[in-house]
Every structure is written in C-alpha cells, then in structure tokens.
Design brief:
The protein has a single domain, classed as AttH-like domain (AttH-like fold, Beta Barrel), CATH 2.40.370. The chain has no helices and 23 strands. About 0% of the residues lie in helices and about 55% in strands. It is mainly beta. The model has no long low-confidence stretch (mean pLDDT about 95).
C-alpha cells in the first residue's frame, strides 16, 4: 500500500500513486534551494531539502559562512509514503502560499546552527529553460527549475550569536528543481568513464530595487552552450528576453577563483548593456552539504532509517585547502545606475577554451 494524503488531490500526472514518479530512473529528485544574505560579506546561509522517490530517501542541509566559519548541519531519513512531509530530523520547509511565501527552519541542537526564516518573493516564480544533457546514450540531466528573488524575516543563530533577519536588509534567491540528475551512491561508470570531466557553469539570479535579472550559462569542454538563459523580470510578471549572455570573468592569478566578471546582454531590438559582477562572500557549496565531495554523504545516499543528523565545521583560512568545487557567493551587480545583489554561482572544472594557453 503506497497511498498518501497527496493522492486525495486531483493532481495526478501518470497512472501511478503520487508516491511513485512517472520514471523509474534512480536519479529522479525533487528539491528546494534557498540562500539568505545581507548583500555584504557579513554572512551567507544556504539551505537545501530534497526527496529521491526511487531511492526511498529524503535529506536536507544548511551551510553557513560566518566570519572564518564554514559550518554545515545535514540530516537524512527514509522517505516513507508521505511526500507532503517536508521535514527531515530538525529541518522543515513549509509552503505558506505557493510560489510566494515559505517558511524554512532548523531546530537548535548540539551542532551550533539554527534558524527560523520566512521567505517572501519579490518577483513571480519564473520557470527556467529545461536542462537536458545526454552522454553516451544515457540521459544525465533532464530537469526543470523555477527561480525567484526575495526577502527574508526571522532569525539565525550561529553558536551563541543570534542574528536578527529583517526584510529591509536580508534578501536572497531560491529555486525549486525536479527531474533527473546524478544522486545517491556512485554507479559503475561503464562507458560513461569516457566522458570529459568538465563542467563550466555560471548561474546569477540578481535582485534589483524594481526588477530582477536571471542568467544561466553552461558550456561543454569545447565551449558549446549546453544551457543558457537571460531574462529581465518585473514584479508584475512581465518579462524581457535579453538575448545570448556573454560571460567575461577575471580570475585570481593561478586559480579558477573569480575576482570579478562582466556579463553582456543584447536584448533584441534594445540597447546592449553590461552588468559588472563582484563576488563578495564565497561559500564552497560542495563541502559538507552532499553535493558531491564526501564519499559517505551525497544527496540521496541511504544513511539508514533515520533521521541521521550530523554536523561538520571548518575554519578559514586554515581549512582553505579543503574548499573547492561549486562556489555560491553573495554577488553585487551593477549596470546603468542600478545596484543589486543576489547569487553569483560558478564552477570551472576541467578543460575549456577560456583556459587554453
């Protein structure tokens, strides 16, 4: 018996109970992502919660960068039958008003991080282009995602320090994605071992006073576009397509750490413009959170019936050598007299034409 309360709503999309998704691909996932910051290098909090129906697992994490601290709390449990239960141990996500207001919380425990935050969207949740990648006949990515800029209220406690979060200062971005991407325990690579180990990625949802800009650039090892998006969105829901985004990063010498960048936009029939991007506070998203580095904790990996709750703490600069992979930074964005803040997310892994020579 796999009925759940969700089956009592007229929302079925396949001849299955809602507990079962339409594909049997083990890599199907359904996930929340949030970040919270004050548009400065003061603090950045990143929170995620995912369900993996075909693996029977749900998990969550929170990662805070505060002063010299990189602290993660993470939890996992068996998914069970009720996919409407969006709690994992001390974590909870509550949808107050769909696509507009959500509550995200982490109860206090021995790991030294807790929060109770309410999200209010500033623009309508905006659907991004479908992300589809096939390698060696295997569909590796096939997902949809919505994005939104917004404001936060509530509080965050790090150790013994409580930070009051008010919407006049504290903002962020969120996304909801679902579909197929690699999750869970590693699979035998087989022919996939022939794929080039490369991931060239930029994701920059930017919030300004009266609008937002959503931009995505993903390229393969030869510089071909795998995914792109460039759209300006107003609170009314009106959207303006901004053409093909052109990304020009400046790297710290001898590294792939971005010190600044320019993204060029050319709206059809409109005036081209450049947005200058400055990362203010980098957070290494893949350290401790389950995004891929630790062999014993990955998104969707079975940790037992649970809930299993763990804490991971690093300090900088002492542990800087352990920090690599995808960077989620608080970003400052400037163009034509507008100043905004948001997420500056990037990763440059493996070969790419921009590193030739």
């Amino acid at each position: 018996m796999s009925l759940s309360p969700l089956d009592d709503y007229p929302i079925h999309q396949a001849p299955e109970v809602m507990r079962h998704v339409a594909t049997s691909d083990r890599n199907f996932y359904d996930r929340y992502y949030f970040n919270c910051h004050a548009g400065s290098d003061e603090l950045m909090l990143i929170v995620g919660l995912g369900q993996y129906p075909n693996l029977g697992v749900t998990d969550a994490f929170a990662c805070v960068r505060y002063r010299d601290l990189h602290r993660v709390v993470r939890a996992s449990r068996e998914l069970g039958l009720d996919r409407m239960d969006t709690s994992v141990g001390p974590f909870r996500v509550e949808v107050i008003e769909g696509l507009r207001r959500l509550r995200v919380s982490l109860a206090a425990d021995e790991h030294g991080l807790s929060f109770d935050l309410t999200w209010e969207g500033e623009i309508p949740a905006t659907l991004e282009p479908r992300h589809f990648v096939r390698w060696q006949e295997r569909v590796v990515f096939d997902s949809m995602r919505l994005a939104q800029t917004g404001r936060w209220s509530g509080h965050i406690t790090v150790g013994d320090e409580r930070v009051e979060v008010t919407p006049d200062r504290w903002r962020g971005t969120r996304d909801r994605s679902w579909g197929i991407r690699p999750v869970g325990e590693p699979e035998p690579p087989g022919i996939q071992a022939k794929n080039p180990s490369t991931f060239y990625w930029l994701y920059t949802p930017m919030g300004f006073d009266d609008h937002a800009i959503l931009c995505i650039v993903q390229e393969d090892h030869e510089g071909r576009r795998v995914l792109e998006e460039a759209v300006r969105v107003w609170p009314s829901g009106e959207q303006e397509y901004l053409g093909r985004p052109e990304y020009r990063p400046e790297y710290v010498a001898g590294t792939r750490e971005v010190s600044s960048a320019v993204i060029g936009f050319s709206p059809p029939g409109g005036k081209p413009f450049d947005v200058r991007c400055t990362p203010l506070l980098p957070v290494h998203l893949m350290v401790g959170t389950g995004y891929g580095l630790e062999p014993d904790w990955k998104h969707g990996m079975y940790q037992g019936p649970g809930p299993v709750v763990q804490g991971v703490t690093y300090t900088l600069p002492g542990d800087a050598g352990k920090m690599w992979g995808m960077v989620d930074a608080v970003g400052r964005f400037e163009y034509d007299g507008h100043v905004g803040y948001g997420l500056y997310e990037y990763w440059a892994l493996g070969p790419h034409p921009s590193f030739a020579g």
